[in-house]
Amino acid sequence: MDRLTSLLFMCHRIPERSFFYNGKQFPICARCTGIMCGYIIAIICLVFVVSFSFLFSILLLVPMTIDGTGQLYNKWKSTNSRRFITGLLAGVGIILFIVNVTVFSFNQGQNLYQLFF
Q1: Mean pLDDT for each 10-residue chunk of the chain (117 residues)?
Q2: Which of 4, 58, 67 is nearest to 34 (CA)?
């Protein structure tokens, strides 16, 4: 499982950027843990809520982009809590983005079908 999760997320697994439980490092970093939790939350939300806007899904990706870019260029040092929260928002945003693109594509396909048949 450890190798599978690190391959799926292509995670760096840097110990300083990972959570620990009972002295053992999580198989993925704090940000990837947040993304994975975000995926689960988004799927649960989609069961109960009909739709989210495309813009909302894009906006959820912004905090992680800002945090990750600032850290990459040494503007600040992010904490594991911040990494987790921004990853959580991005995980939700990624799933909602995929759902919005899929629904849009399906609707366009139906429109094309009705146009020709």
Answers
A1: 67 86 90 94 87 90 95 92 97 95 85 69
A2: 67
Per-residue pLDDT at 84: 97
Q: Which pairs count as long-range contacts for 95-98, CB under 8 Å and 24+ apart, including other chains?
A: 95/38, 95/39, 95/42, 95/43, 95/46, 96/42, 96/46, 96/52, 96/56, 96/57, 96/60, 97/54, 97/57, 97/58, 97/61
Sequence-ordered list of residues with C-beta below 8 angstroms from that of 89, at least 6 positions apart, any chain: 34, 38, 60, 61, 63, 64
Looking at residue 115, what is its pLDDT? 67
DSSP letters spanning 63-76 = HHHHHHHHHHTTS-
Tell me how far apart the alpha carbons of residues 84 and 64 are, in angstroms, rounded to a whole number. Answer: 9
Q: Which residue has the tokens 């990972």?
A: 18
Distances (CA, A) of 63 to 21, 41, 58, 88: 26, 17, 10, 10
